């Protein structure tokens, strides 16, 4: 279940630049998870 949460957060994090600025308020709510996902993604790049 946590893995699917990461996928969902990663997609949200990757698309944040494409969305309207008003959506940033929603992004701030999930900012902590987005950072964790970013670090998780970097970890996979290093150890893959």
Describe the structure.
The longest helix is centred in the last third of the chain and has 17 residues, at 31-47. With 48 residues, this protein is mainly α. The protein contains 3 helices and no strands. The protein starts with a helix and ends with a helix. α1 (2-15) packs across α3. The protein has one domain (2-47).
Overview in brief:
With 48 residues, this protein is an all-alpha fold. The chain is 77% helix and 0% strand.
Protein topology:
Layout: H1 2-15, H2 24-29, H3 31-47
Order of helices and strands: HHH
Radius of gyration: 11 Å
Which descriptor suits the 3D outline? elongated
Tell me roughly what share of residues is in helical segments.
over 70%
Count of beta strands: 0
> How many H/I helices?
3
The major beta sheet can be summarized as:
none
Number of domains: 1
**Fraction of residues in β-strands:** under 5%
The span between the termini is 22 Å
Average pLDDT rating: 58
Q: Which runs of at least 5 residues are low in confidence (pLDDT < 50)?
A: none
Strand-pairing-aware structural class: mainly alpha
């Amino acid at each position: 279940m946590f893995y699917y949460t990461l996928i969902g957060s990663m997609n949200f994090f990757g698309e944040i630049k494409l969305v309207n600025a008003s959506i940033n308020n929603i992004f701030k709510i999930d900012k902590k998870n987005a950072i964790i996902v970013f670090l998780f993604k970097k970890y996979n790049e290093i150890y893959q």
